[in-house]
Amino acid sequence: MSSAQALQINAYMSPHPLDEDSFLEEEWISWLPGYVKEETEDGLPSYYHDSNVALYEKIETFTNDLFKKAAERIWPLLKDHHFKKVFISIDYSNYRGDTSLAGYEYRYSNPGKGTYQFSVDRNLLHRYSAFLDEKLDKLPNMNIWEHELMHLLDHWEILKASSFAHSDLPLNNLRYYALKYREEGIANLLDLLDGKIKGISSIAKAKEVFAANYTKVKSDLSNHKKTDDKIRSEMYSGYDFYEVGPWIILDMLDEIFSLTEIDTDWFMSRLGNYCQP
């Protein structure tokens, strides 16, 4: 593929307000700036107003354009990758209850077929709503889609690590906890290079925080023979993965440059050095 502009992207409101099977309630979508409430002159629900339909299309187009802008920015990493279709679900109703901004849905993506699924969560849509009428070149680089595209490139290692994430065995959960620093460290490295990471300011500090966090999580897990969703969810939450992870990846760059990929086994072997006294 010659450029990011050639990507076939389908960004869509989910559920789509004009879908008869969406069972949409006005309060789910009426928070959008510029949304016209009440029925149309023809007695149809508010989401059929022409101005509201235009708003959906503007949001979908804006999402599409921002994604392409991010892909263009890191195109040297993507240009040899197989792309057939990119789908972006826009969750305006916060149906999933996520606290994130966007996501790469690896479980619904198929690199072999060149099809990839992403999502926009309501938190990001709140940010979008303030810029819908701005020109793309006037917007700051938020690195959100760049981050998710790095996850796309890391698809197979993320898939491999996910088997540890959902296990109920503490040892597997501890392994995934460590691998999550790799996963988010790679995806968030551009933030570090752009000077957007403020909480951690050095490799030494990142090592210190990781060692302390890892020791605590290992100790907490030692109290459980099996883990449940609540324990795992609390363990995998927090922002340290995004702030500490990039510094760890930066620390390993000299070795990384000699590798074809930063696989999970190699990363785990290197992390052992961080926890030695």
Question: Brief overview, please?
Answer:
Helices cover 48% and strands 7% of the residues. The chain has helices spanning 26-29, 50-73, 75-78, 122-129, 144-153, 155-165, 170-187, 189-193, 203-221, 229-235, 240-251, 253-256, 264-271, and strands spanning 9-13, 85-90, 102-104, 115-120.
Provide a descriptive summary of the structure in words:
This protein is an alpha/beta fold and 277 residues long. It has helices at 26-29, 50-73, 75-78, 122-129, 144-153, 155-165, 170-187, 189-193, 203-221, 229-235, 240-251, 253-256, 264-271; strands at 9-13, 85-90, 102-104, 115-120. It has a four-stranded mixed beta sheet.
Low-confidence stretches: none
Main β-sheet: number of strands, strand sense, barrel status? 4 strands, mixed
Distance between the termini: 49 Å
Number of strands: 4
How do the helices and strands line up, and which of them pair or pack?
Blueprint: E1 9-13, H1 26-29, H2 50-73, H3 75-78, E2 85-90, E3 102-104, E4 115-120, H4 122-129, H5 144-153, H6 155-165, H7 170-187, H8 189-193, H9 203-221, H10 229-235, H11 240-251, H12 253-256, H13 264-271
Helix pairs in contact: 2-5, 5-7, 6-7, 7-9, 7-11, 7-13, 9-11
Identify the notable features of this structure and list them briefly.
277 residues, 4 strands, 4-stranded mixed sheet, 2 domains, single chain, globular, 13 helices, alpha/beta
